[in-house]
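Ops channel
N.P.: pipeline sanity check, posting one input/output pair.
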């Protein structure tokens, strides 16, 4: 977000001076300002600026949605807490509050015209021609669950904060000595010699005794806990679900076929060649020579062209952009015929056709089933809302889901048990439907027997659903998951022994044995890597291994886990190459990244200082109430 606040316009000195002014005179105040709610609803208070429970909950839900999309599954509040979502959102609220309070103290504001321009300039609300679209504005806000008033207020707050952020962070340039040091640091490459330690280097791990397994299970019981399962019944109404192809009369199918015969017609195509001349005299002379017996190929050669120059390809008449050429080519009676001189778009032309593929029409019998289904789908779309209303009326009248479905000739489907990730108690994914993730998410937000509104199905359908039972999450017994626990224990022990073996060999390397001596004694092969670069990745070493290679000096040694399962690499740095070109070799992206980091650091310092200027209070009770509000 900060990137959008920066426009190179002011010097580093002016930024530093302004920062000093902000933090020195920030205590100068005027009348208070309240943002979003009363004092009792304030989650964060900074001076006279307050952040309401609604604002906190909105920001929290947005971060939850982002994390859920990244992980590809619905995230619970407990999981979000493990990812630090609650603390991250709180940090955002505090930073925004102190910046808003500073804006208030400095009497910063925004005109209505400027606010309207900012909204109109947002690319998210623009259509293909770059113009603001009211429909796009409404649709985008609805998709993220944000009201128009909330967006306008938040956009105004961000724009006002931006005035401070721009003043502090614009125009920052990284000093040349810093870029030079960064280039030397990031551009250094290393060579390593290494050997791989895997399962073949250790004794096989035997299955554990019962007491060992029980101890391991007790220490890791949460990993084997059974999740909550829910039973779900649902009815899916889509045009395809109510489509009845047998209801379409044969006469209607044939009438549609006749009306759209061009749809089933493959047009005639011809292999066409055109010879273009500079003037009509040369074209006419060439035409006369062809009539006198000269081959078209020789005429092409006389014109100083090759056959590849004159080939247009296999085309239908509508494929030719020049209507005169199209008319001439498709007027020729037989393959091999040559046209007269044609006044083409690029000059006089002689056209030859070398092959003709006649037009074909798919017979009615071949496409009648397809047409019948399409017509039935139109009828289904027309009647879908009537069936929706009839189903809803039946339910409102006391009918069960099964009875309401049967009355409309719909199928009620049953998911016996599924967890929030879409898995059955067996661990396998439940049989899928197109809207499975949405259905399961909705069901886990519902209650047993609750009459919930339908969710969307396909492009124009509905899914009614009902939770029939809930099996709470619980601790599994060892007997339920014995095979899995044994497998996990053996895998852990195997990796531990490989790590111990690799670290032991690395110790021998540090004590004076050479890599080659150790490898020969252990029956391992020494390999080499060249051009490893700091901060990069490698299929054998991985990002962590590369970091370890660069964590020591030019003779650094060690052992690292490979990204591959149960493999460790014992390595020694054998060569170091300095970066060539210095700071000049840094790409613009890297330079901009350094500048952005400097700006971020300065802004972080400003926010930290403002938190000491304006007393910040966090209301944990209000946070809990905000998160408990549905």
């Amino acid at each position: 977000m900060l990137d959008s606040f920066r426009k190179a316009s002011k010097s580093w000195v002016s930024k530093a001076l302004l920062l000093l002014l902000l933090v020195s005179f920030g205590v100068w105040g005027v009348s208070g300002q309240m943002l979003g709610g009363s004092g009792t609803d304030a989650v964060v208070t900074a001076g006279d600026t307050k952040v309401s429970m609604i604002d906190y909950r909105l920001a929290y839900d947005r971060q939850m949605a982002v994390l859920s999309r990244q992980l590809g599954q619905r995230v619970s509040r407990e999981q979000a807490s493990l990812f630090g979502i609650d603390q991250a959102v709180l940090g955002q609220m505090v930073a925004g509050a102190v910046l808003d309070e500073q804006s208030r103290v400095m009497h910063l504001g925004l005109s209505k015209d400027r606010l309207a321009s900012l909204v109109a300039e947002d690319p998210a609300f623009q259509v293909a021609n770059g113009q603001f679209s009211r429909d796009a504005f409404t649709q985008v806000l609805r998709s993220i669950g944000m009201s128009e008033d909330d967006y306008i207020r938040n956009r105004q707050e961000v724009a006002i904060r931006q005035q401070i952020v721009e003043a502090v962070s614009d125009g920052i340039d990284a000093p040349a000595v810093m870029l030079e040091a960064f280039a030397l640091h990031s551009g250094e490459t290393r060579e390593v010699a290494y050997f791989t330690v895997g399962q073949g280097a250790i004794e096989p791990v035997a299955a554990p005794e019962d007491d060992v397994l029980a101890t391991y299970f007790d220490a890791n019981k949460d990993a084997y806990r059974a999740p909550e399962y829910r039973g779900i019944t649902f009815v899916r109404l889509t045009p395809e679900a109510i489509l009845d192809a047998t209801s379409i009369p044969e006469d209607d199918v044939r009438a549609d076929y006749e009306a759209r015969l061009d749809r089933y017609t493959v047009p005639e195509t011809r292999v066409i060649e055109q010879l273009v001349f500079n003037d009509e005299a040369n074209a006419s002379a060439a035409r006369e020579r062809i009539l006198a017996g000269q081959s078209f190929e020789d005429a092409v050669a006389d014109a100083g062209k090759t056959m590849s120059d004159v080939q247009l390809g296999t085309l239908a008449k509508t494929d030719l952009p020049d209507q005169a050429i199209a008319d001439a080519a498709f007027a020729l009676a037989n393959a091999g015929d040559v046209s007269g001189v044609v006044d083409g778009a690029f000059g006089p032309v002689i056209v030859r056709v070398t092959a003709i593929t006649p037009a074909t029409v798919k017979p009615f019998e071949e496409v009648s089933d397809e047409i019948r289904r399409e017509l039935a789908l139109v009828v289904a779309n027309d009647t879908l809302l009537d069936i929706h209303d009839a189903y809803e009326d039946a339910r409102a009248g006391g009918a069960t889901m099964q009875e309401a479905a049967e009355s409309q000739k719909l199928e009620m489907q049953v998911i016996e048990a599924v967890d929030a990730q879409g898995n059955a108690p067996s661990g396998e994914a439940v049989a899928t439907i197109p809207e499975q993730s949405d259905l399961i998410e909705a069901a886990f937000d519902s209650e047993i027997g609750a009459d919930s509104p339908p969710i969307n199905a396909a492009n124009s359908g509905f899914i009614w659903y009902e939770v029939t039972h809930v099996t709470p999450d619980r601790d599994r017994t060892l007997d339920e998951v014995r095979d899995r626990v044994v497998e996990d224990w053996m895998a852990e022990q195997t990796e531990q022994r490989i790590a111990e073996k690799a670290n032991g060999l690395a110790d021998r390397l540090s004590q004076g044995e050479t890599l080659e001596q150790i490898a020969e004694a252990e029956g391992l092969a020494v390999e080499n890597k060249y051009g490893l670069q700091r901060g990069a990745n490698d299929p054998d070493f991985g990002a962590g291994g590369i970091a370890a290679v660069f964590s020591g000096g030019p003779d650094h040694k060690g052992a690292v886990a490979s990204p591959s399962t149960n493999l460790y690499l014992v390595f020694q740095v054998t060569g170091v190459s300095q970066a060539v070109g210095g700071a000049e070799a840094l790409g613009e992206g890297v330079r901009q990244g350094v500048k952005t980091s400097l700006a971020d650091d300065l802004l972080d310092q400003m926010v930290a200082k403002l938190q000491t200027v304006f007393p910040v209070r966090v209301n944990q009770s209000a946070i809990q109430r905000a998160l408990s509000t549905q």
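N.P.: looks fine end to end. Residues 2-174+589-628 form a domain with the Triger factor/SurA peptide-binding fold fold (CATH 1.10.4030).
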